[in-house]
Amino acid sequence: MENCDCLVLGLGAMGSATLYHLARQGHDAVGIDQFEPGHVWGSSHGHSRAFRVFYRDPLYTELAQAALPHWQELQATSRIPLIHLCGFLAFATPDNRMMEDHLTAIRQSEAPFELLTPAEVTSRFPALQIPARSRVCFTPQAGFLDADRCVATHLAEARRLGASIHGQVTVEHIELGRGHTIVRTSAGDFRANRLVMTAGPWTRQCLPELTLPLTVTRQQKFYFQPSSPGALEPTSLPVYADYDTRYYGFPLHGPGVKVADDTRGAETDPDRIDRRIDHQEGERLGNWLASLLPQRTFKLLSGSTCMYTETPDQDFLIGRHPRQPGIIVGAGFSGHGFKFSTLIGLMLAQLATIGSTPYPVQRFQLDRFSRP
Ligand SMILES: Cc1cc2nc3c(=O)[nH]c(=O)nc-3n(C[C@H](O)[C@H](O)[C@H](O)COP(=O)(O)OP(=O)(O)OC[C@H]3O[C@@H](n4cnc5c(N)ncnc54)[C@H](O)[C@@H]3O)c2cc1C
Predict the structure, then answer these.
(1) Does the Cβ of 314 fall within 6 Å of ligand 1?
(2) Whose CA is nearest to atom 51 of ligand 1?
(3) Is 306 a pocket residue for ligand 1 (Cβ < 6 Å)?
(4) How remote is the CA of residue 339 from the centroid of ligand 1, in Å?
(5) CA of residue 361 to ligand 1 center, whole Å
(6) 56 C-alpha to center of ligand 1: Å?
(7) Measuring CA to CA, which of 135, 249, 277, 372 is 20 to 30 A from 258?
(8) Looking at ligand 1, which residue's alpha carbon is closest to its atom 22?
């Protein structure tokens, strides 16, 4: 049996960030994952995740703004480019309710934003031609994160600061003890004073006793190769999101231009998810891309599957296990959690070690679905 002070179960976006913050605070921290960290079977793989402050709920704008300096600090310390602040441009038809709600919220926030006409969009970003009559909001304090690098950098920095990382270790059972938790795994047992559970889509399986109301859906993302790369780089193109179709795209980064649909896919089981790519969806997204960036053609390069894990009220789950104070859970990060991951890692590390966090996590408590 290996004794450890802080054990982190799951090393995707949230677990890698938690391990980093624990190690940074000087704690004896061990991270385990059922796969080799950096794998493509969970929710955190790939070259890009949008970083936006444009939310209909001011809490998430506030959290995104709080996360930004942490990403910039990690980038400066590691000297690895992690965040590209190319801006985020949302557009929709004039009667789109979701857009209206986002505009109301951004006006009340402290985040800078600009309302642009479609013609102003094209004069600023020459490749982009959005439909006439669209309402457009551009937020400059936004862009995208290089997801794979963010996870790898959190882990590399955690290791440099003394954390141990074990891949190919599957947690099979968790036993609640007095003042400690026994974690039985495929590679032996751990006795942990504090356990942080960041198991993403596998959270329900890891904590069956809590019957957490988490839904896991199958999502897809696609890469396209443009016939010419000009004006598609992050220096000339923001992240762009269509609030009518819920499709969104990125500038050229990694193997090509990434496009995805934020609509919830079919419910799935993380161990049985269908990894085959739906080429019709790829074609649909390719047509949307070609209509927005019309001076070039796009060839479908690749597609991959990923999972959203969501709560019924769509708020995150961050907090203490109701029956074991030494277990802290972070889950339900849905299709927009990545941008917050470095901050959520800090919150989880603080909850595990000092028992509280100065960040606003009251809304995210685990027991909110079981209260009368
Ligand atoms: C297609 C797609 C697009 C997205 N786009 C954006 C975006 O643009 N912007 C944004 O901010 N967010 C975005 N997100 C959301 C974001 O990526 C997720 O919220 C985030 O990555 C969730 O991370 P996680 O650490 O909770 O889960 P995961 O990355 O799935 O990590 C969980 C880890 O736990 C491990 N694990 C589970 N069970 C066990 C076990 N029994 N034993 C050992 N290890 C175990 C798994 O192997 C895994 O590595 C997107 C998500 C998807 C799927």
Answers:
(1) no
(2) 335
(3) yes
(4) 12
(5) 19
(6) 23
(7) 135
(8) 43
The one-letter amino acid at 339? K
Class of domain 49-145+215-310: alpha beta
Ligand 1 centroid vs 250 CA: distance in angstroms?
19
What is the chain's pLDDT, residue by residue, as a tens digit (372 residues)?
899 999 999 999 999 999 999 999 999 999 999 999 999 999 999 999 999 999 999 999 999 999 999 999 999 999 999 999 999 999 999 999 999 999 999 999 999 999 999 999 999 999 999 999 999 999 999 999 999 999 999 999 999 999 999 999 999 999 998 889 999 999 999 999 999 999 999 999 999 999 999 999 999 999 999 999 999 999 999 999 999 999 999 999 999 999 999 999 999 999 999 999 999 999 999 999 999 999 899 999 999 999 999 999 999 999 999 999 999 999 999 999 999 999 999 999 999 999 999 999 999 999 998 876
Q: Which fold has domain 2-44+148-214+313-369?
A: FAD/NAD(P)-binding domain (3.50.50)
Asked if residue 241 has its Cβ within 6 Å of ligand 1, the reply is no
- Cβ of 42 closer than 6 Å to ligand 1, yes or no, is yes
Helices (H) and strands (E) in the chain, counts: 8, 19
Q: Is the CB of 337 under 6 A from ligand 1?
A: yes
Closest ligand 1 atom to Cα of 221 = 1
151-176 as b/e: b if 16+ CB within 10 A: bbbbbbbbeebebbbbeebebeebee
CA distance 363 to 60: 11
Q: Amino acid identity, residue 287? A: N
Nearest to 341 by CA among 42, 14, 82: 14
Atom number, ligand 1, closest to the C-alpha of residue 340: 11
Listed in sequence order, the residues at least 6 apart from 63 whose beta carbon sits closer than 8 Å to its beta carbon are 340, 343, 359, 360
| d(C-alpha 247, C-alpha 311), whole Å | 22
Please work out whether the CB of residue 37 comes within 6 Å of at least one atom of ligand 1: no
Q: What pTM did the predictor assign?
A: 0.97
216 lines ligand 1 (CB under 6 A): no
